[in-house]
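[job 4471] stage=fold_predict status=RUNNING
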Amino acid sequence: MTTKIKLGRDNFIELRAAKLWNRAKSRNKPSFQITKGWIKKRLLGGCCEVTGIEFSYDKPKPHYNANPFSPSLDRIDSRKGYTYKNTQVVIWGYNVAKSFLDPDDFERLLRGINGHNFF
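[job 4471] inference complete, writing structure tokens
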């Protein structure tokens, strides 16, 4: 029989911050300065630093590889390391879209989405 331990919000956020930090550190980029505490502070803010969309910690839907609204570390300039000035905590979906498009196309996409009335 397994016992499930229910984590409080602070413990959960701390574990998530550690996971994000470890993943970033393993990429062995130059100029790594962010700390787990720095990440945790941003996670406690509750939302993406770019879009303002609230972070979700739910499991991904069956047809997704990841939850598009889960937190992710974004290097603003991907040629630089994880520094305080070059790192932001964003939703995973934003980070993935940004990584597949060049900056001009990505900006065009965001402007189009922002200027379109979907409903």
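[job 4471] summary: Confidence is low (pLDDT under 50) at residues 1-5.
[job 4471] exit 0
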